[in-house]
Specification:
The protein has about 250 residues and is an alpha/beta fold. Helices cover about 45% and strands about 15% of the residues. It contains 10 helices and 8 strands. The strands form 2 sheets. Strands 5-4-6-3-7 form a 5-stranded mixed β-sheet, with helices on both faces. Strands 1-8-2 form a 3-stranded antiparallel β-sheet, sandwiched between helices. The longest helix has 20 residues. The two termini are about 30 Å apart. The model has no long low-confidence stretch (mean pLDDT about 95).
């Protein structure tokens, strides 16, 4: 099943309707964990900087300051939400300075392109499609947020089905190895699936910063992100970030 919002993925895990998330941003992992959701990091996925962005509606050339009082749409409780808060904070503003409406990234792009929203929070191929339709980039995560994408799993699933959990992680890592060794073929498959050119597929690949084994730098990044989320009212209760990472994720 396709669920693009990390916040909704977390809710599905909390209810037991979802066991694994193939790709989840650590901001959503932290917020879910802070709310008492027994979610764990199973493996790394990517360290993207340019793959998350804030775009403005066609015909505009907004800066972050220009968004004051304007309608901004995007998924709440995600790294995109964190990006918006960080970008506003850098300009001496808060989330209260914009009319922020919770919306799935694809719908956010549609709202921006139609002019019903002034700016939107989008990711990956949606950025390229929006740019092609005249929606200019306002900012990416560079210099604001260091996003980390991971594979997440319910702790109950790990406890009940340890062999299945290990098999899923091994298969995911084998897939990344294959992609690296057969890049041209992988890009062709991805371009066809996303309906984009090979050139744009390669751009997204370069933006994604794929990896699989977490390091101590990732642990420190989680701690820094948690502090940011707490300081900005996006997370109420702190958690032991190291406890969120399963042992197999770091080897």
């Amino acid at each position: 099943r396709v669920i693009n919002s990390g916040a909704i993925q977390g809710q599905a895990m909390a209810s037991g309707d979802l066991d694994f998330s193939a790709v989840m941003n650590t901001a959503s992992v932290l917020m879910a964990a802070g709310a008492g959701n027994p979610i764990r990091i199973a493996s790394g996925v990517g360290h993207p900087q340019k793959i998350f962005a804030i775009i403005g509606k066609p015909g505009t050339d907004y800066s972050i300051k220009d968004l004051k009082g304007k309608k901004v749409v995007g998924p709440k409780g995600t790294v995109l939400h964190q990006l918006l808060v960080a970008a506003l904070k850098k300009e001496g503003m808060t989330i209260k300075d914009v009319d922020f409406i919770n919306m799935d990234p694809a719908k956010a792009m549609t709202a921006v392109l139609s002019g019903s929203a002034d700016a939107g929070l989008v990711a990956a191929g949606l950025i390229i499609k929006a740019n092609a339709e005249g929606a200019k980039m306002i900012t990416t995560c560079e210099g604001l947020v260091e996003p980390n994408l991971v594979m997440a799993v319910r702790q109950a699933f790990v406890d009940q089905y340890p062999e299945a959990y290990e098999r899923v992680v091994a298969t995911n890592r084998a897939a990344l190895k294959w992609i690296r060794e057969h890049k041209a073929e992988a890009l062709a498959m991805g371009a066809k699936e996303q309906g984009i050119s090979i050139e744009n597929a390669e751009k997204l690949y370069d933006w994604s910063g794929f990896y699989d084994v977490l390091t101590e730098a990732d642990v420190k990044g989680l701690a820094a992100d948690q502090q940011f989320l707490i300081d900005n009212g996006m997370m109420e209760k702190a958690v032991d970030v190291r406890s969120l990472i399963l042992p197999g994720a770091m080897k």
